[in-house]
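agent: user wants the full assembly modeled, not chains individually. Plan: 1) parse entity lines 2) check alphabet per entity 3) run joint structure prediction 4) return tokens. Steps 1-2 passed, two entities, 394 residues total. Proceeding.
--- entities ---
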Amino acid sequence: MSTPLIDNLANWLNRLPGIGVKTAQRLAYHVLSMPEEDVRRLASALVDARENVKYCPRCGNFTEGELCAVCSDAKRDPTVVCVVRDARDVAFMERMREYRGLYHVLGGTLSPMDGVGPENIRIAPLLERVGNEGVKEVILATNPDVEGEATAAYIARLLKPTGVCVTRIAHGIPIGGNLEYVDEITLFKAIENRREV
Amino acid sequence: MSTPLIDNLANWLNRLPGIGVKTAQRLAYHVLSMPEEDVRRLASALVDARENVKYCPRCGNFTEGELCAVCSDAKRDPTVVCVVRDARDVAFMERMREYRGLYHVLGGTLSPMDGVGPENIRIAPLLERVGNEGVKEVILATNPDVEGEATAAYIARLLKPTGVCVTRIAHGIPIGGNLEYVDEITLFKAIENRREV
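--- prediction returned ---
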């Protein structure tokens, strides 16, 4: 039978995204069977990450020191800046290992319904960077959803007068995808952005 | 982009059952966005549960004090003992709120292939309880799988000479179940154990 401490642990685990009541209970029981030292290390990993992972003052990416790993890498091209919504998006972009420019994390997307206006996300610091850091191209890589598109359009309009080249990531059929399973809007975008071969 | 502390956290989360690499990363990022105080309380919940939840010296159920909540409840009937595999099975049995007897947790099931013999699970303490505690009925509630059935049969054979009443939980169609989706063995058991209405 459960004890108050097991219930307490299950309740806390249940508050994590994607962890339902049953999964939380199962995980709580599993924790009881783990070596005590491992449980302590898991607990430390939680607190250490939360306390010591900060945001890069320049681009907003995760960092444990001052500038993040991308900003402090002298081999990266500082004239290209890729704008993303969250710091975790930087990790997704870096997975392709091809992009050699820098990043700018907005920390959200414009969403008037949720009260998120231009002053609530890091748009002003982006304009400042474009003005001061010799940026030649800004790649808008916000998600292709309503908020992401609106945010990209808003930033593009602000940046146009500065003369910087503003680009948007391409929409189309995913590699390995199948026409049958691609939604109509993506298909329309894929036709619209067709290229001569 | 990920930092060493984020990767460390994701690796530890990934070691939990049912938490894959992607889920672990998603959870790690979520932890970074949680209030620091909540992360500390989650970490404490882990360590507190692991360090302070013990096994009841009488029945093997989870407890935070001496005897567990069931054993120390004077309203329970000490003449009936339900034998289950794990301490977590007690929680599952207690959910039905109908059973008023006590429990005995084996801490495993017989499994010669895995080197688990009668001396590796709490069979001797069960025999001792039956001999000393005035037990009138032992309900064998191990799982209806190969090991569970073998363990139940083994214990039944040991208990028979003591004259105690030994019963096995019933097999049959789950309530709300559909004949179409019930496996043949369960169906066979359901026919075999049919009752006059």
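agent: reporting back. Residues 62-196 of chain A form a domain with the Dna Topoisomerase Vi A Subunit; Chain: A, domain 2 fold (CATH 3.40.1360.10). The mean pLDDT of chain A is 91.
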